Amino acid sequence: MFEFITPLFVSLILGGTLVGIIFGAIPGMTATMAVAISLPLTYSLGLENGLALLLGLYVGGISGGLVPAILLGIPGTPSSITTTFDGYPMAQRGEGEAALRIGIISSFVGGIISLAVLWLFAPTLADFAIKFSYVEKFLIILFALTVMAALSSDMLLGIFSGVLGIFVSLIGVYDVSDGGNGKLRLVPPGWEYWLDSGFSLLPVLIGLFGLAAILEQAELGVPRGHSAKDIKVGRHSAFSFSVFRGQAVNLVRSSAIGTFVGILPGVGGSAASIIAYTNAKTFSRHPERFGKGEPAGIIASESGNNGLTGGALVPLLSLGIPGDSTTALLIGAFTLQGVQVGPLFIGNNPGTWNAMIVAMLIANVAMLVMMYVAIRWFARVVTIPKHILFPVILMMCVIGAYTINYGIMFDVWTLAIFGLFGWLAVKLRLEIAPFIIGFILGPSAEIYFVKSLESFGDVTIFFTKSWIAVLLWALILGSVVLSVLLARKARRGEGS
């Protein structure tokens, strides 16, 4: 049952967690980037060992972001934004080490609670989803896209980004087996040879999350960098577990919020930590202390963003829909090994399912031990000059894109095209998460839509097929209404 636990399996988790923490601890480098550039390495490792590496990177990367957030007031990852609110003030008054240990323990609790939710609910949801027909599967994808649009910073841009991702995913031959005519579509003149099968998924992912991030940092120039003098760990700041006294509700509630947000497609860790932090402040007896170095704020932020790690895997493994950008990258690992995720995945691949649960557990424990014991060493990571790191990462991106399909130069051009697109998308305020999830789910949405019409012959079947279809339409309508209300609230906030 646990034959996958080998020295190599454990070593990859530990190594992935360590590298992930380092990536998360360097501002501008994220867990998503770490997973993106490591994807090609998983091809030769096999599925279980490859996932061990990627899940270690995922857990370590999310957790490592707390280091610069507390010591420099700069979030290492977007999900650590709210950690800066109270962590940095604590560091400024000489309590940096205590703040770091509070964040590390909170991250561990959030990760373990979300892992328990993943283990308990993903198989149940998958068993239920097996009964879905093409109609319900199409509506599930439509629901995922409307949720992403509702929770984007701009609803219309979120919808446009998702539709653009679907549009790009449909480039290539419209396969007869998918209900098509076997001819090319959406291919510019002169590109027919290269785009016969459309853009390859993995170079697209590496470009959007690896190269685009490097271009963003390159645009900023070569910063002065941070020296050891900038880091105020607070050598004499005492840490005591008594700081968690009376914080059990905050820990569990924030972890649950992070897990729930992770289950929603495309929302991301920054939303999880912000919602958890806001709730902690709302229910606190001393809300006036938040933002001034209140440990409860760090507890809420870090347990919330690490609660995302297990939650984001629930829709991926039970429905085939990624919960965030990083889990979207995991689809690349499955694709490399020829495995399709969806309702049948857990039942057909019990060994891989168990390997993922064990890998997540070991990664969370490893993160706790590594960061708690060696926090002073990880604090020095923030001083590593990025002008040395980024050329190495760029080289890894190019080599990974070139070798992923046995040496196709067009994959390197794909990397460049989507790296530039990812860089420009930020300036145009497009949403990358809806785009990439639309790109991944677009072909499936088309197949389910066409097969539904072939089977039932009428679009009314999408409204009358079953009570599940009716429920999904209610959820879709609810997400649209929510997006309108959020947009109105935002406009009122800007006007006041």
TrEMBL record:
Membrane recorded as keyword: yes
Assigned keywords, A-Z: Membrane, Plasmid, Transmembrane, Transmembrane helix
Cross-referenced InterPro entries: DUF112_TM (IPR002823)
TM regions (residue ranges): 12-39, 51-77, 98-122, 128-148, 155-174, 194-215, 352-375, 387-404, 410-426, 433-450, 462-487
Domain DUF112: 12-437
UniProt keyword Amino-acid biosynthesis present: no
Name of this protein: Tripartite tricarboxylate transporter permease
